[in-house]
Amino acid sequence: MLNRFSRTELLYGKTAMEKLSASRVAVFGIGGVGGYTVEALVRSGVGTIDIIDDDKICLTNVNRQIIATTKTVGKFKIDVMEERCKEINPNVVINKHQMFYTPETSDHFDFSQYDYVVDAIDTVTGKIELVMQAQKTKTPIISSMGAGNKTNPQGFMVADIYKTSVCPLARVMRTELRKRGVKKLKVVYSQEKPMTPIDDMSISCRTNCICPPGTKRKCTVRRQVPGSTAFVPSVVGLIIAGEVINDLTK
């Protein structure tokens, strides 16, 4: 019977689509990378998705985040993402978690419930904790490495963390995961050297923060606000979604 996933079923078959419908994926971070990942998972037929983020949409998100528009500025990302997902597939189950993932908040999540975990957050401590929790339950996980300050979408590739190079975030992750005895981690990364953002305080969130009242992590506390584009984080998010879908349907 013709349905919203018929074109996908033509490639993967009915059994694979049933697997996707029965799958539960957690996406940590619903920004430039994670937002595109969530949308692609919904459009691919994943039945249950947990979305984890504590931010509100900022005007400066409009250049790259799929849920960021003039109408959605000031709204919580998880609320806008849920609404968008339901418009795509009214039957999808969206579990919202309005929080910033850290080692201190990790006990809110039971990783054994997930068929796959996506790490699209930008703090090293949070990323490491995600990997360690996924390892405990043997839950598949894929992590996004640095996408900020880069302009070449063709440079991104899938690799094991220990086979990465150039990317500063991947270097830190390699060191920390090796200390903890982690043997492997699937990541999406680029060997493009990150650019240094223009030091112009007139367009910097650090001195012109327009985050709505109630935002827990304002740009004013950052040491550097990274530059980004519409076409780099989106590519990373879609690569991640593709890996998740292909792994779940094996």
Q: Can you describe what's shown?
A:
- The structure is a single chain.
- This protein is α/β, with parallel strands linked by helices and 250 residues long.
- It has a single domain, classed as NAD(P)-binding Rossmann-like Domain (Rossmann fold, 3-Layer(aba) Sandwich), CATH 3.40.50.
- The chain contains seven helices and seven strands.
- Strands 3-2-1-4-5-7-6 form a seven-stranded mixed sheet, with helices on both faces.
What descriptive keywords fit this protein?
250 residues; Rossmann fold; globular; alpha/beta; 7 strands; 33% helix
Per DSSP, the total helix count is 7
Spans of at least 5 consecutive residues whose pLDDT stays below 50 are none
Question: Percent range for helical residues?
Answer: 25-40%
The number of E-state strands comes to 7
The CATH topology corresponds to Rossmann fold
Distance between the termini: 23 Å
In angstroms, what is the radius of gyration?
Answer: 18 Å
The CATH superfamily is identified as: NAD(P)-binding Rossmann-like Domain
CATH domain class: Alpha Beta
Give the biggest beta sheet.
7 strands, mixed
Strand order of the largest sheet: 3-2-1-4-5-7-6
Q: Report the sheet-strand fraction.
A: 5-15%
CATH architectural grouping: 3-Layer(aba) Sandwich
The topology string of helices and strands comes to HHEHEHEEHEEHEH
Tell me the structural class: alpha/beta
